[in-house]
Amino acid sequence: MSKPKLKTYAKLDIPSILVTELLTPSEVRMLKNRWRMVKLLEEGLSIRQIAKEVKVGTDTVVRIARMMEKTTLRKLLDEILKKDKFKTRTPWIFGKS
Predict the structure, then answer these.
(1) Using CA atoms, how far apart are residues 97 and 87, in angstroms rounded to an integer?
(2) Which one of 20, 27, 37, 48 is at 20 to 30 Å from 14 when CA atoms are compared?
């Protein structure tokens, strides 16, 4: 007999002050870094430029960029930032845009 799958919630209304209380300082820093990477990717900076500016590895930036393409993160960002979707499928690869 298989286990039932957990339900995922499309929207969680958690006040930001509560989020900062629930997360460790390290998790808050990483969340801020990820949001910064998302915004820099939206601005069209290259993977290397973002990695240097945020002081993370290029693999971390690539992971965030892929999340933006392959998950509902893209749709949420479009709603939040009111921007158009990428013109190409991979504008972030190796600084080509």
Answers:
(1) 9
(2) 37
